[in-house]
Amino acid sequence: SAVISQKPSRDICQRGTSLTIQCQVDSQVTMMFWYRQQPGQSLTLIATANQGSEATYESGFVIDKFPISRPNLTFSTLTVSNMSPEDSSIYLCSAGTGDGDTQYFGPGTRLTVL
Amino acid sequence: AQKVTQAQTEISVVEKEDVTLDCVYETRDTTYYLFWYKQPPSGELVFLIRRNSFDEQNEISGRYSWNFQKSTSSFNFTITASQVVDSAVYFCALSEAQFSGGYNKLIFGAGTRLAVHP
């Protein structure tokens, strides 16, 4: 299994600012994924991050709001732009490691927007 | 369309009771994967099991067991002799396989919050 770390683990931000979340995997992976978990809710996929190409966004999520970078096979960032209180959520990244379709998750970034 | 239903929103049991968490899924594909994840209060998502659509054998891992039945599109999870440390939100998820390789997104159920009381 992969070990996935995220920074920051939590943050409190002001409305209108942006926050970049980092995700680091301890091995090379083909795809990385970013999920949002709103308070008391399930996980919803924001986008799939492929190395060397543009991220693929799910319905309801746009690049201007959630720009993603994937500079290499072990690292990705998600930026939450122009934040509002509705963006208060846990943001989790995940990655597949090669043993079938199992995705392992990072510890999450708990974001609160005031 | 893919869909995962976890009808039980919350379950409360007393320690040492057995508890079953239900999961029903919908997919049009014949090749797919099913998962269970545990999310303790700390928030991280812990992988528990993966099952592919061609393997209907039930699995047991310690106090955990899983019952996969394609005929009813269900993948239920049983905890035997529950413990306080089992208190968490449990998510069932579905992923359709890509024949070209790589990974597909996970479709999560709403989750079941399990509270185990001493």
Task: Give the secondary structure arrangement, pairings included.
The complex is a heterodimer of chains A (114) and B (118).
Chain A: E1 4-7, E2 10-13, E3 19-25, E4 31-37, E5 43-50, E6 56-57, E7 68-72, E8 75-80, E9 89-96, E10 103-105, E11 109-113
Parallel strand pairs in A: 2-11
Antiparallel strand pairs in A: 1-3, 3-8, 4-5, 4-9, 5-6, 7-8, 9-10, 9-11
Chain B: E1 3-5, E2 10-14, E3 19-21, E4 24-26, E5 32-39, E6 46-52, E7 59-61, E8 64-69, E9 74-79, E10 88-96, E11 107-108, E12 112-117
Parallel strand pairs in B: 2-12
Antiparallel strand pairs in B: 1-4, 3-9, 5-6, 5-10, 7-8, 8-9, 10-11, 10-12
What does this structure look like?
The complex is a heterodimer of chains A (114) and B (118). Chain A is 0% helix and 52% strand. By secondary structure, chain A is mostly beta strands. In chain A, the strands form two sheets. In chain A, strands 2, 4, 5, 6, 9, 10 and 11 form a seven-stranded mixed sheet that branches. A four-stranded antiparallel sheet of chain A has the order 1-3-8-7, with no helix packed on it. Chain A is globular and about 35 Å long. Chain B is built from no helices and twelve strands. Chains A and B meet through strand 5, strand 9 and strand 10 of A and strand 5 and strand 6 of B.
Short description:
By secondary structure, chain A is mainly β. Chain A has no helices and eleven strands.
Shape of chain B: globular
Terminal CA distance of chain B reads 41 Å
Shape descriptor of chain A reads globular
Distance between the termini of chain A: 36 Å
Pair with the biggest interface = A-B, 25 and 23 residues
Which percent band covers the strand fraction of chain B?
over 45%
Helix content of chain A: under 10%
Quaternary organization: heterodimer
Global mean pLDDT of chain A: 92
Beta fraction of chain A: over 45%
Estimated structural class of chain B: mainly beta
Number of strands of chain B: 12
Number of helices of chain A: 0
Number of strands of chain A: 11
